[in-house]
Amino acid sequence: MKRIIIYVVFCFAALLTARSQDATDSLWNNANSHYADAQYQEALDDYREIEQSGKESAALYYNIGNTYYQMRYIAYAILYYEKALRLEPNNQDIMYNLEIAREQCTDRIEPVPTFFVADWIRKSHQLMSSDMWAIVSVILLILALTFFLLFLFARYVKFRKAAFILSVIIFLFAGVSTAFAWQSRKQAIRRDIAIVLAPVSSVKSAPGSQGKDLLVIHEGTKVRVVEQMGEWARIELEDGRQGWVALNEIVFVY
Length: 254
Known about the structure:
By secondary structure, the protein is of the alpha+beta class. Helix content is 60%, strand content 14%.
């Protein structure tokens, strides 16, 4: 009897999942059709309905970003391109559209220059997702262990030396790929990046309306949230400048 109940529950859950997927596919196809016909509001409504159902993918966020861009909501387009890029950090189409959208922002903030080694590391770990880097790490560790075992049990001295050297080199590469996996994962789950959605936002010296105005930033500007205090957030711009803005003027990229 217990097995029958479990089987019925399993079948019911599978049926609900299938129906949910069918509904999502229908919305996705409708949204794409609306977008192709330049019916951007209808496309946006369908895409957002998919998002609100709990679905998450770079393709979904990318399409939402494109739709907002066509509707001239540049800040929202940037927000969703950033969301898409968080899931696929090496996607050239997303990066290109994001750059095009950023060029239309009022603010031109130059990032703080980074050391070329740090820049190389950042670009390298973005070549693959954290899961792919983890798989590479496991494969390399298995290879390193294999060559180390050959070093221990091989009969010829030259072969043992070669096996030992290869095991050390491969182990070092495994360590690098593990570090890249950790860095990619850290980048994907970070919760401190936000986009300014208010048309104009005053950056203040202290939280609260009484703080001194330091500068003004505009919609579409990317910021890093350093800390939050009530309804205010201390932000850092890409050029290193910091200040406080109202929390309701920014939206986090997650």
